[in-house]
Amino acid sequence: xxxxxGSSAERSVATRAVHAGxxxxxxxxxxxxxxxxxxxxxxxxxxxxAARLDAFTEGKDDGGPPIYARAAxxxxxxxxxxxxxxxxxxxxxxxxxxxxxxxxxxLARVSAGLPHVVAVRPLYGTSDHLLDxxxxxxxxxxxxxxxxxxxxxxxxxxxxVETPANPTLGEAGIQELADACAPVPVLVDxxxxxxxxxxxxxxxxxxxxxxxxxxxxxHGDVMGGVVACSEEFARTLRxxxxxxxxxxxxxxxxxxxxxxxxxxxxxxxxxxGAAELARxxxxxxxxxxxxxxxxxxxxxxxxxMTGGGAMVAFEVAGxxxxxxxxxxxxxxxxxxxxxxxLIQHPASISHHIMDADSRADAGIPEELIRLSVGLEDVEDLxxxxxxxxxxxxxxxxx
Length: 398
Hints:
Blueprint: H1 13-19, H2 25-28, H3 46-57, H4 74-87, E1 91-95, H5 98-111, E2 116-120, H6 125-133, E3 139-143, E4 156-162, H7 174-181, E5 186-189, H8 194-197, E6 207-211, E7 225-229, H9 231-244, H10 250-261, H11 263-281, E8 287-291, E9 311-316, H12 320-326, E10 331-332, E11 342-344, H13 356-361, E12 368-372, H14 378-392
Parallel strand pairs: 2-3, 2-4, 4-5, 5-6, 10-11
Antiparallel strand pairs: 1-7, 6-7, 8-9, 9-12, 11-12
């Protein structure tokens, strides 16, 4: 166990998760971070306000009182500070959702005259759809991690990869990809792994993106998105957020900051359950294939991710959608990362927005099921999966 007591950078991720964004509370005479609900911030010095507004419109944030809630919020700042510390980033910028965060990154690169994106499939279905649609003025080349460097053009402004991938859990070597694609920045969607298990910036990525709705919140009751990156790029993202208004609600910022405190312990417990369920599913007669990082000694990027994570994907030897209706304990719903286990059929829900050819190109078969493992007892989860699989296979329920 890490017992460092020095600077925050030397402390373990579990310690930093508890204390990040809270270092000033004792001096303020507070224990819980305050919730700031202000939409506007009064000041009698109009000239000073004008100067600060100029700074905000340039994406600068000195940490002082905001002018207006679309520019900044003190509660959201605490979450941003904490997430940046966990990811090892200079800064992070929070948004109303993960898709708002990705949209801001795309707008920033398009406005810089670099509209081409190289996207490594598979990605979250709506991310794939946004990149493919060109709605924000971008063009996209979809490819594999291996072929990504050869897809780069003079106008390429971004390489996007999700590792582990949604929904197949395939892993890409971040350092190898970043080195091969340099100087084009690599964005890693770190939603599945979280900084509790993986820190992409330490492996050469320029930025990480989270659907904070998932593991960062952890309880299925808050929506948000966040990008961790350099302070220079954060300024551009703040400019985009300021003019588009995709701000994170203060209540959500409060909940997400609180969610970070238990993130490492939740990820450890949920990952342990997922690894055990993956092992058992691999031996089930109604399961054709299981996708889980490292299962069966499968090769993995060295020193990149600690553990296999809390997501499991498997292909049913039968009617995959029917399995969703057969579970009794596991929640049949889209999304992931909650304390309760969630199960869904990607081709029908999370990746349905992609056409069938795109799903096939991304390696997402119709038989695939995605399971987000929660904090329930693994024996109870297994009993539910086993009875559902047997029902789909036409065997009597036990």
